[in-house]
Design a protein that fits this description.
- Strand 13, helix 13 and strand 14 form a beta-alpha-beta unit.
- With 445 residues, the protein is of the alpha/beta class.
- The radius of gyration is 24 Å and the shape is elongated.
- It has an eight-stranded mixed beta sheet, sandwiched between helices. The chain has a seven-stranded parallel beta sheet with strand order 11-12-10-13-14-9-15, sandwiched between helices.
- The chain has 14 helices and 15 strands.
- The N terminus is likely disordered.
- Helix 4 packs across helix 5.
- Bound molecules: adenosine-5'-diphosphate.
- Adenosine-5'-diphosphate binds next to helix 4.
Length: 445
Amino acid sequence: NGSPNTEGVSGDGLENKSTDEAPISPAERSLLQKIIRRGLVENKNDIEVQRKDPSSPLFSVKSFEALNLHPQLLKGVYAMGFNAPSKIQETALPTLLADRPQNMIAQSQSGTGKTAAFVLAMLSRVDPKKEYPQVLCLSPTYELAIQTGEVAAKMAQFCTEIKIRFAVRGEEIPRGTKLKEHIIIGTPGKVVDWGVKYRFFDLGKISVFVLDEADVMIATQGHQDQSFRIHKLLSPNCQMMFFSATYEQDVMEFAEGIVSNPVVIRLKREEESLHNIKQYYVMCRNLEDKYTAIANIYGVVTIGQAMIFCHTRKTASWLTEKMSHDGHAVALLSGDLTVEQRIAVLDRFRDGKEKVLITTNVLARGIDVEQVTIVVNFDLPVDLRRNADCDTYLHRIGRTGRFGKAGIAINLVDGPETMALLKQIEDHFGKKINQLDAEDVDEIE
Ligand code: ADP
């Protein structure tokens, strides 16, 4: 098993100008993030609250009991292993569940508990005796709708009378049908078909409308318009809940078009930093040396897991093949996999079936893999001008306050050009990156 075609892998670097991976869509990134996540993302920042009517006091809760949930629903929450509300839930839930329904716009990064919050609100607003859709949740894609539905089904596991229906591709119902399920979770196109065109249910009778992943939604052509078409048929008394992982101008404009007089809550993302990360570099003469370094590193990944970033898909699959051939259990996540394959790879990695995940920039940004203790840059991240891409470096290596344990970053340097990149990174962050002897990677432990 020799070297791959030199193109894009080694040597003079000219071929490396840009990665050959197409960036993944915001919807897919969000999905993969949900798959790989094991639990809540902690965030030490404070919740910011803005509301139009400061006379109505906003309170927060420290326990799920304080919310006066239906006992079967509370049981479901505990069965999911939730002991106490997350930060965003502490503030969002009292408002979402208030007797006088209040509209809400909530923004916080992925993994902070938004889905669990609105699913709880959706379930607690259902009157199971009324046999028609009362709650409508819009998600940007089929897969994201299914994810939300799975959370709802789990949380409602003891509320057997509550019925959920997916309005997504593949679901077909005959004309003239009147839906009896209490909750509809679907994508905008299908919900327009069912609710606006064919009137399989009465949008005017919806009492809770949730728009999830608004930032992903607006990235999809047509979703904003479809959302407005649905929104137009909702009753003025319908409670509107709007969720987004980001807080850009266009998302907020969309929000204001959907949600009138909202309570706006926001939890700013915690900044990533290189604090608590030990950074090293290993001097390699050639691709073989780089491989040896990786094989040595593999040997010391006893606790936790490692992620290896390559510049191109070709390098990533070459490395995966070579490592597998040498008997190492590694997984490959790259752009040529189908969505289902990517999910399967991340599922296995999350469950620890492989210690090492080899990937390209597909995962470099936005996806946090908390169980990873060692990050290896097989290739240093570069921008289109071939300067060090310090943002991507930080995303790959950096951690936020939620990680108590120290992380390790190892950069493979294979010549003066890479060394110059490493210097740029050192200067940018003002932190020294120490040399590690390829033979003694075990000193990192
Ligand atoms: P978001 O919608 O903001 O991405 P989720 O609601 O999906 O966040 O929650 C992220 C992860 O944390 C999920 O695995 C979820 O099961 C878990 N989680 C949510 N709320 C709690 C809680 N109160 N306690 C413990 N885990 C929680």
